[in-house]
Amino acid sequence: MEMAEQVSGAERMPLQPVERELERIFSSLGHGMYVVDSERRIRLWNKAAESILGWKEEDALGNDCREFIRHEDKEGLRLCDDHCPLRSSIDGSRTVFAGTVWGYTSGGGKVPLNVSCAPLLDAEGHVAGAVEVFADITREMEVDRLKSEIVSIMAHELRTPLTSMLGYLELVMEGEAGSLTDEQREFLSIVKSNIARLTGLVNDFLDLDKLESGKMDMHWEELDLNELARDALKAHFPMAEDKGLDLAHELEPLSSVFGDRQLVSQVLHNLISNAIKYTNEGKIEVKTSVDDGKVAVEVKDTGVGIPVEEQDKIGDKFFRASTAALTPSHGSGLGLSITMGIIEKHCGDLEIQSEPGVGSTFRVLLPLDRECVLIKAEKEAEGGI
Questions:
Q1: What domain range includes position 45?
Q2: What are 344-354's pLDDT values in tens digits?
Q3: 178: exposed, middle or buried (C-beta count within 10 Å: 0-12, 13-18, 19+)?
């Protein structure tokens, strides 16, 4: 008996022709796959879905998918209620990439899944349901965890000798080991610069590891973003002056926000530093404002910009835009990953606009409503994030 025939006639929906066409394909696919009608009742359920989640075909067919999958995001928010990717796909008649979510198994456990959903149309072109495709990424997550652990160990092991090297190098440059010629001092300055660069890379690795593992120490307090912006501008003025760039600002009166002073300062320093690095001529403008219940900090440059086709990679670890080669600047590609991680911990958003040859605008939005931030702070205190 075909799967479609196992659902009673009273339960049949206009999806039936699609079911019969897809059923032959579904059974042999390695990815978990199931089809729902417009009410999210399961009409097809393949063998891979049964293998990954444990629910058998006869248990699933004809029932509401929310009784089986029960997607949750990494914060434990139930997606089936207000953020269901299947519902979004049906209502919007579009493909939805939900990314990594958690799905419940028949035994009550949870499995990390990479999920995408697409609408299914009937013969008249109307949306009759949707299909979800998912893969168990338990192994991939374990590999990522091991990679992060190795990187963290290496970074910790590197930091101690680098600190020692820098200390002894400074003693030599100060003449503690004898006088130096101008040429020797120049060579040692190059060594010092590269040690500082390597130390910065190690610190980036450690910061990223803390953010991803939830071990970042957070110290929550009232923050004046204008004050932090002025401090960041002052710190980067010499860097901008060396490149012949104007560093302007327009800071509106703001209400305070709740956050970690050091981390929010790091966001501003990263964005202003990047703007200077990737701008060969022109200016950098820093603006603050209030926007729809949020405080906005905008860093705008006249730099090399980022091609449209590369902008979805912004924030990926080690990503550097192809246009970065048009400047003499070097970077690890970790700064924006760290920046976005910090902003996420503050319940904020990062908006990006960029055009090659014109420049880029990075806009940080932090909420004035403290509810989300206070919950984050509570979880941080409990070690829950």
A1: 3-136
A2: 889 899 999 99
A3: exposed
